[in-house]
Every structure is written in structure tokens, then in C-alpha cells.
């Protein structure tokens, strides 16, 4: 057993329901086999466990590991392709890079960079859009296993409209997805997600195959994109006989509590109602929405309907792995919406990037640092005299300190990351 000593900030209760941030100043967490088995003021815990080794983190601030609910593994080398809307960006930047994943050696290199990038940003769990090629998805799960990240991912499926080398057929999609799930689902910390790219690039036959896969893979997640860009939405309506976007998935039984749909910038009220009653989660990806000019995310409407929302980096349309940056951009986005926006505090940003994501991914054992939870955590300790260090010295209270962390923090300020109590290298 090990005692971790420090200031721990987390959101075990939902700030959108009025709960306050939890701040544990000079607190001790006793961790056994990766699980937090006791939590109390450090002096009390020390007295009760005088012989256990202490890891002293008092010179920084400890947050739960981040949970990224939407990120594309094959797009890390496409980050920074600015200036285009979604469909043009896919053709010009994302899809040429995704086609390179046909080369398994290339994919291995990208997979290593990807998992290292996530971990360095304090992200310990992620729902990852995989690649269109099985070998590349194997490379991702292999790399995630060697770091110890909690990765849920799958083979990306499309059978129309994209460049031909990225297309599959329903029969092939079924066989290859199931083979991957048999190799990786619930093996170590890996899990499988059935992953059609978006209904724009998927026929009804392929979406029906996705439903069969959901039935064949117990407890798989389902993930895709929805309502991101107005031109995209109009094309989906044309292709599906005027149907709304959520219904293109829902009519195949693909919208339920295990569903995570990215973006939803332009939903109708009917779609929000469907998402709320089904228990699906929307992955809000604010830097991506800003970079592609997709629009301002209507968070308030989601919350009014009771739709679950968490955060995604959406690398590579998103601008990096850091959920600190996504949190800040989520805040900006709501500010820009004026009267229509939902004002956000630092507690909301932390909740969206930790507990909300853990719930979306059905990982109840992570997302906050209570007794019984896994010790997935990150230590923020900026370099002395850095702008963040200076700002933290002058914060009046811990909520203000957390707001400064979201405003000024970056992966370079994260000194250490643990998953299930293990320090990552
Ligand atoms: N919709 C379909 N594919 C993609 C993608 O790769 N990125 C984003 N942002 N939206 C998509
Ligand atoms: Zn995406």
C-alpha cells in the first residue's frame, strides 16, 4: 500500500446539479492494488498507517486523470490543418493521412506517438476513433496496452463517398470488427467500440451490420459523428430521405446508453429528446468546432433536455490532446453564445473532462478520487516562475486556482500521471 499526500481536486458530484468542487487540502489517499481504500486528512491517515510509504505531492495540485470521449488516432500528424470546413478538411487533411494507415509499420509509429501524447496531456481514459485498417487498430491497442491507458476503440467503417481505399463492405466490416473485438475487447484495459465514421459515409446496410456487431460483442460501445456541419447535415438528409441525423442511427437501434456521438452542434429539439430518453452521450469538441467553423455548441439546450455531455479533443480537427484547452474553449464558446450560453465555472470544466467522460464511457471506477475508485490521477506542477506558477501563487482559493489551471495550463505543466496507482514513464 502507498499513501499519496497532497491537494486533490475533483467532482464526485455533478456541478450542473449544484454540487461544489471537492477540495482535499493536505489530504492522504491510501492506495492498494490501484484502488483508493482510504481517504482522510493526511495526519489522520498517517497515524492510522504509520509504516506505509508516502508519495508527497504537496508541491502541486492533483486532479483525476482526464477522460477524452472523442479523439482520432490516425489524425495526429494532421493537426493544424486550418482554414477549411469539415468536408473539405476531411478530403484535404484527414483522409489522406488515414489512408497511410494501410502501412502497418507507419501505423505503429503513429500509435506510439498517439498514446504518448494522450498520457502526456493527463488523459488516462479515451474513446478513440480507430483506423479503417485492422492492422492499424491492432497497433493502437498494442501501444495502449504497453502504456496501460484505458482505451476503447474500434475499426472505422465506411462503405460510400470516401476515397475508395478507405471503403469496406458490410460483410467484411462484420468479420474484421468481430475479429478485432475477439482479440481486444475486455482484454487488459482495452474495450471495443463499433465505429461507423458517420452516416454520410455509411449505407443502411452497413448501419444494420453495426447493430449486428453490437449484439455480437457484449457491452461494446457505439460511437460516431452527428450534426457537426450544416452542409454535412443537408447531405445526410438527402441520402436518408429527409430523415434527421440522429434517426439515421436510431432506426438501427444504435442510440442508447452505450452510444457516444461527437459534436451535435446543430440538433433539432426532436433529436435532443431522442438523445435524452435513450441516455446517449454527446462528446462536445470545442476546439474542433471552432477550428472548422462548425458552430457554437448549444450546451444549454442539451442540459435542458437532459442529454449527457462530456468533452472530446477531436484531434486532429481539434487542436491538441489537452482537455485543459478543450475546457477553456468550452467556456469561451458558452460566453460567445451570450444569452443562449450556459455560464461555466472551473468546477463544470473539471466535471466535463473527468467524471462526465467516465460515465459516458461506462467506466464508473474512474473520474474522481473517492474511496473505492481507481487511482487514475495527474500532478500539475508548473515550472517555477512560469505564468501558471505565478498565477497560482496569487489565486485566492482553490476554485480560482483551478480556473487558472484551465486558462494557462498545458501538458508541460503535468509532472506525473498514474493509472491504477502505477506511475507512467
Ligand atoms: N466526421 C466524419 N469524420 C470526421 C472526422 O474525422 N473529424 C470530424 N471532426 N468530423 C468527422
Ligand atoms: Zn471526430
TrEMBL record:
Pfam families noted in UniProt: Amidohydro_1
EC assignment: 3.5.4.3
Keywords assigned: Hydrolase, Metal-binding, Zinc
Cofactor: Zn(2+)
UniProt similarity note: Belongs to the metallo-dependent hydrolases superfamily. ATZ/TRZ family.
Catalytic activity: guanine + H2O + H(+) = xanthine + NH4(+)
Keyword Metal-binding: yes
Cofactor note: Binds 1 zinc ion per subunit.
Annotated InterPro entries: Amidohydro-rel (IPR006680), Guanine_deaminase (IPR014311), Metal-dep_hydrolase_composite (IPR011059), Metal_Hydrolase (IPR032466), Metallo-dep_hydrolases (IPR051607)
Pathway: Purine metabolism; guanine degradation; xanthine from guanine: step 1/1
Role noted for this protein: Catalyzes the hydrolytic deamination of guanine, producing xanthine and ammonia.
Keyword Metal-binding belongs to the record: yes
Domain of life: Bacteria
Protein name: Guanine deaminase
Organismal lineage: Bacteria, Bacillati, Actinomycetota, Actinomycetes, Propionibacteriales
Domain Amidohydrolase-related as annotated: residue spans: 61-423
